[in-house]
Amino acid sequence: MLSGTMAQDFCVGDLSGAQTPAGFPCKKVAQVTVSDFVFSGLAKAGNTSNIIKAAVTPAFVNQFPAVNGLGISAARLDIAPGGVVPLHTHPAASEFLVVTQGTIAAGFITSSNDVYYTTLRKGDAMVFPQGLLHYQINAGGVTAVAIVSFSSPSPGLQITPIALFGNDLPSALVEAVTFLDDAEVKRLKKVLGGSG
């Protein structure tokens, strides 16, 4: 018989504490209730009236503290007709996407620049390995919806066009690293909120 310590089954995040690479500190077990383990936020469609005509409704640790320390999280993805989730990465997680409505064209680019892409329909699933550039596009005439799970409670996100053009990196540097001309860089910076 082992003595001394009991297994820690969960660590509901105490969001009032500081987040570290290991997550948030644990909420006191005496304060945990069943409602800590239930998240209802994925039922409602996200607002797709934006430049990309897409919305992500996250169930990450900041919205759903029960995933703290469990190595999982989820999100709802809504993409209106004509919408796109531009090339992006999740530096801290792999992604598993399941289409629940509509049609989504999706793909990813490997670190050796091999491309894997396809069209997904209701019930289809696709995995996007951690850290790789990937995208999703509405490929039909109705709003597409997917439920996405991640291998981290805090997957991170970097959207490539916003990283390049939505900041104050001088245009001359952006031109040098993208091979785009000055007029195009300035146009994209204006569209995506950058300066410089």
From TrEMBL:
Sorted alphabetically, which keywords does the UniProt record give?
Answer: Apoplast, Disulfide bond, Manganese, Metal-binding, Secreted, Signal
Cellular component GO terms, alphabetical: apoplast
Residue positions annotated to bind oxalate are 90, 95
Recorded GO terms, molecular function?
Answer: manganese ion binding
Q: Where does Mn(2+) bind?
A: 88, 90, 95, 134
Alphabetical list of SUPFAM superfamilies matching this protein: RmlC-like cupins
- Please report the name of this protein according to its UniProt entry: Germin-like protein
Which intervals hold domain Cupin type-1? 40-186
The entry's localization annotation reads: Secreted, Extracellular space, Apoplast
Q: What SMART domains does the annotation carry?
A: Cupin_1
Q: Which InterPro entries match?
A: Cupin_1, Germin, RmlC-like_jellyroll, RmlC_Cupin_sf
Q: Looking at the keywords, is Metal-binding present?
A: yes
Q: Which family does it belong to?
A: Belongs to the germin family.
Q: Any S-S bridges, and between which cysteines?
A: 11-26
